[in-house]
Design a protein that fits this description.
The protein has 395 residues and is mostly helical. 67% of the residues lie in helices and 0% in strands. The chain is globular and about 60 Å long. The termini are far apart.
Length: 395
């Protein structure tokens, strides 16, 4: 879900003040995986059963990409707080900054999604969006209140909004009681909730509270403490620790299969987050070198820069390709998937970049309406002053 940068976080910096390499690229790749997941999901019916080729089975786990987004969100938000003694400033100031960064592109994407779902292609089997959809999703309350969704990817934005509200409290606990108490306390509450549920796995839906994702966010927050750790700690082989932590989870998913995995995401989320947190720690300390160099390349950093917009707007674009274009061009199944990847993925990336230039980047560059309006006036004046080039024969 993810922003998500932390989708929308201030640039991550190392203890020395330099930009942390790799996190933007990792954010971009995660958003791209979510796009590919939805290409797969819409091309092959029957989820969570794999009705597509077995060699595409790795694309079935879009939920885990959202888990990584939320871990990265907690990690990125906590980086600057860790350098300030685990303080984020005033609660009002923090919430204002989050709202300024997250809501304008989200609301713009909501309008786009409502229009597409209403007049082009339905967003879900729950029916077209209603007035309740506008109210619930406009207030970012979709994790608590059920309404027909205009965009299936929006569920995680509601989760993030809830986590933002408690972030200052989490920092307070981290500062007063320490990382172990914070992480253990939040995780044990969630585990107790899971163990007391019928069948040992709580029922979840797209519009239901997802408490198991709180430890995911908190794990990222705790992992950000590496930026103020000693050099000896920072030089530990975090990438190997991440690989070792991932192996048993990946083996379990491979053995149990997608139907079991999707039905037990409550526990799988908790099992996979140590590996994800260790990966973020490794990347933030420059390991492994090959991966951080790849993630730090210009295309990866550019993709990460507008990954929030890509997450917000890709699904309506992919749905139009799959439901409205592909049936007139290719057969169902694998041909539809290939067609969607070849057309829908570039269209999603280009569309997200254009969307971000209008609805996201101005809010990243400016911190107030005054600054934003000043930039707009400056750009308008620059366009008016630009001399027109003479017409040519080609015109």
């Amino acid at each position: 879900m993810p922003s998500p940068e932390e989708r929308g976080a201030e640039p991550e910096r190392s203890p020395g003040g330099a930009h942390v390499p790799g996190l933007d690229g990792l954010r971009g790749l995660t958003a791209l995986y979510v796009v590919l997941f939805h290409c797969w999901l819409l091309a092959f019916p029957g989820f969570p059963r794999n009705s597509g080729p077995s060699w595409l089975g790795w694309l079935m786990y879009g939920r885990l990409a959202v888990v990584l987004f939320l871990t990265l969100s907690g990690f990125s938000l906590a980086l600057s707080a860790a350098r300030r003694g685990w303080r984020s400033g005033s609660l009002a100031g923090f919430l204002r900054r989050r709202a300024w960064r997250i809501l304008p592109p989200y609301w713009a994407a909501l309008v786009l999604s409502l229009a597409v779902a209403r007049w082009v292609v339905p967003a879900s089997h729950f029916g077209p969006p209603t007035g309740a959809s506008v109210l619930v999703y406009g207030l970012v309350a979709q994790d608590m209140v059920t309404a027909p969704t205009p965009n299936g990817a929006f569920w995680s934005i509601g989760v993030e909004a809830e986590l933002y509200l408690v972030f200052p409290l989490l920092l307070l606990i981290r500062r007063r009681l320490g990382a172990v108490v914070l992480l253990a306390g939040v995780t044990l509450l969630v585990v107790a909730h899971g163990l007391t549920a019928n069948g040992g796995t709580p029922v979840e839906g797209l519009n239901g509270l997802t408490p198991n994702l709180a430890p995911v966010f908190v794990a990222g927050l705790v992992g950000a403490g590496v930026v103020v750790a000693s050099e000896r700690v920072r030089r530990l082989p975090w990438h190997w620790a991440a690989a070792l932590a991932a192996l048993p989870v990946l083996a379990l998913i491979a053995v149990k299969g997608p139907v079991w995995t999707v039905g037990h995401y409550f526990w799988v989320d908790l099992a996979v987050v140590p590996a994800m947190t260790l990966l973020l720690v490794a990347v933030s300390t420059g390991r492994p070198d090959v991966l951080t160099r790849l993630l730090g390349t210009r295309p990866m950093r550019a993709l990460g820069d507008f990954s929030y917009s890509l997450y917000l707007v890709h699904l309506p674009i992919v749905m139009v390709v799959v439901r409205e274009v592909a049936p007139h061009v290719v057969p169902a199944g694998l041909p539809t998937f290939c067609f969607t990847v070849l057309l829908g993925v570039p269209a999603s990336v280009l569309g997200a970049w254009l969307f971000s230039e209008v609805f996201e980047m101005p809010f990243k560059r400016n911190r107030s309406w005054k600054s934003l309006l000043a930039e707009g006036r400056s750009r308008a004046n620059g366009l008016r002053r630009s001399p027109r080039r003479p017409l040519t024969a080609e015109d």
